[in-house]
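Hi R.,

Here's the chain you asked about this morning:
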Amino acid sequence: MNKEPEITAFFDEATFTISYIIADPDTGKAAILDPVLDFDAASGRTSTPNADKLITHISDHGLVVEWILETHAHADHLSAAQYLKGHVGGKVSVGRNITAVQKVFAGVFNLGGGFDCTGGQFDHLFEDGECFAVGNLEVRVLATPGHTPGCVTYCVGDNAFVGDTLFMPDFGTARTDFPGGDAKTLYRSIKRILTLPKHTTLFLCHDYKAPGRDEFIWETSVAEQCAKNVHIHDGVSESEFVTMRETKDKTLGKPRLVLPAIQVNIRAGVFPEVEDNGVSYLKLPLNRL
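And the predicted structure, written out as tokens:
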């Protein structure tokens, strides 16, 4: 199998999210990772400029999409997975433990017994350690929970797509105060990522441009994280990290799109069923989170 993919990043500054197209140069087969559906919270309107950029790239380069991969159920943007599936194909997939996230938020949003908490909305649920192919590329899935119970990392060649577990070294690590999050679990997941070879390139899902830095950056390495991450560099103990993370999380406000995003993303990017007037609605639970 060809070991190294062609990787193209697409940055959405509105949500500070990076989506990726991972392509096999030998076969033209590709995967899309963490695609963004544009959403205006004030009007409740969705649009597709970000997703259309991916479609244009796929068309211009003659790629065939086999997979649409999510690293977790995002709280900061709505997934464009279903829109993309309808236009370029691909199996919408996520880690097996999305079911734990679904169970928690089915309660938060009072979705009732009719909501499927088995992950059936997705085309495939990855097990920890599972390997799959994108053309001639082999991709290995690592379960890396802590930010959410369902977070996974995708490893391909000398690259790993780590979702929200890690940020750039000058910004640190993911929050763990969402339902089902856990600082101790996150510490252990990050340490698992950092056992990858030191030269492994880590591709991040977000960059918030730490104070004093002028540019957005979303590529780092295992070696750089071990040496420089402000939260979890070499020498930081589990208890030190947990104390720091839990203290910091208490100071954070909720992401701007958490309530609409989670409702869509636990459904694999599908909107809630339309009601008798032909309109789909998102719920806004009061005083719940």
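Residues 6-262 form a domain with the Metallo-beta-lactamase; Chain A fold (CATH 3.60.15.10).

Let me know if you need anything else.
M.
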